[in-house]
Amino acid sequence: MTKVYYNGDVNDYVLANKKVAVIGYGSQGHAHAQNLRESGIDVVVGLREGKSWDQAKKDGLAVYTVREAVEQADVVMVLLPDEHQPKVYKEEIEPGLKPGNALVFAHGFNIHFSQIVPPSYVDVFLVAPKGPGHLVRRTFTEGAGVPALIAVEQDVSGSAKDVALAYAKAIGSARAGVLETSFKEETETDLFGEQAVLCGGLTSLVKAGFETLVEAGYQPEVAYFECLHELKLIVDLMYEGGLAGMRYSISDTAQWGDFVSGPRVVNESVKAEMKEVLKDIQTGKFAKGWILENQANRPEFNAINRQESEHQIEVVGRKLREMMPFVKQKQAKEVVGARA
Ligand code: NDP
Ligand code: MG
Ligand code: MG
């Protein structure tokens, strides 16, 4: 078993006299900045003027332009959208970095795929909470935390890993457990997980099930409940008790169907395709496509996004959720920060 670090394994002093600049105040940024502050860390926020700037000010944080924030900080945590990071880094972050600073990320994409190439005189590491920012904040206020991965890419000071652990503790993650990884492993597994299972695999499975029922003449509303709505209950059970915990709670009929039909649906050919998806991630083919798509202002992304929102499961779902106020409420609060 790989080592899991908790609060007791962390040297707080490596971060105690340092100033942290949190760049960005979105899903992750607001959570990191507020948690760090409440852990007694000297924190400033780096932003452009706009919505986030106003919000961070309202939350009582010291807000500066990105360049100003970087210039006064020892540790710079980059929490901008991954697609915008290379440009902001080149223009406003890199010019402000001094020898001995630490440059930190919450996802390894830009370092691993060389979209950001830091100078040789700074530490480069990763603290990646394995959950959306709003959960990082909420669990912290409840005395708990979201588990995190740390990784060290460049260790000039000799204490990069200790600072990474201290940072993870200050945002609450060492209450839940911190695992060490590499930028390569974090980036490739994160992309694979969201593409093959969590987001891509799941949405395609749900749509295929829904379409099969509707094409066979069943009511779309009933198909929606069976193939989408009930997922939450199943996932909660898996989260708490793994596959066995979920299977313990469902009927024996459902469990037998799981055993005999599951492997027919997600069969060897699906797994062979997953291996191809993984290969595209490992070779940089996926990254290249996504970088170019962004440079072209996302024509394909926007077109697919529009088509998807018009799919029958979405049209039916919007109507049904209107009739379920308890679902609606939850949505407004949580969906904002729910990114894989
Ligand atoms: P968000 O999209 O939620 O937030 C982006 C923030 O960056 C906003 O405050 C935005 O401010 C600001 N911003 C955007 N462009 C600029 C710019 N040019 N100059 C200054 N500020 C700018 O990002 P996330 O929190 O989702 O992602 C941040 C990082 O965390 C990424 O690396 C991501 O991979 C990683 N991560 C995210 C997770 C998540 O659940 N969301 C989970 C784990 C890691 P404005 O209001 O001005 O647009
Ligand atoms: Mg059923
Ligand atoms: Mg991701």
Question: What is the compact description of this entry?
Answer:
By secondary structure, the chain is an alpha/beta fold. Helices cover 58% and strands 12% of the residues.
Compute the number of structural domains: 2
Q: Helix/strand-derived class? A: alpha/beta
What is the number of E strands?
A: 9
**Number of helices in the DSSP assignment:** 18
CATH architecture group name of the largest domain: 3-Layer(aba) Sandwich
Instruction: Quote the beta fraction.
Output: 5-15%
**Major beta sheet, strand line-up:** 1-9-8-7-6-5-2-3-4
CATH superfamily of the largest domain: NAD(P)-binding Rossmann-like Domain
- Compounds present? NADPH dihydro-nicotinamide-adenine-dinucleotide phosphate, magnesium ion
The description of the largest β-sheet is:
9 strands, mixed
CATH class of the largest domain: Alpha Beta
Parts with pLDDT < 50 across at least 5 consecutive residues: 332-338
Distance between the termini: 25 Å
Query: How would you spell out the order of helices and strands?
Result: EHEHEHEHEHEHEHEHEHHHHHHHHHH
Question: What is the general shape?
Answer: globular
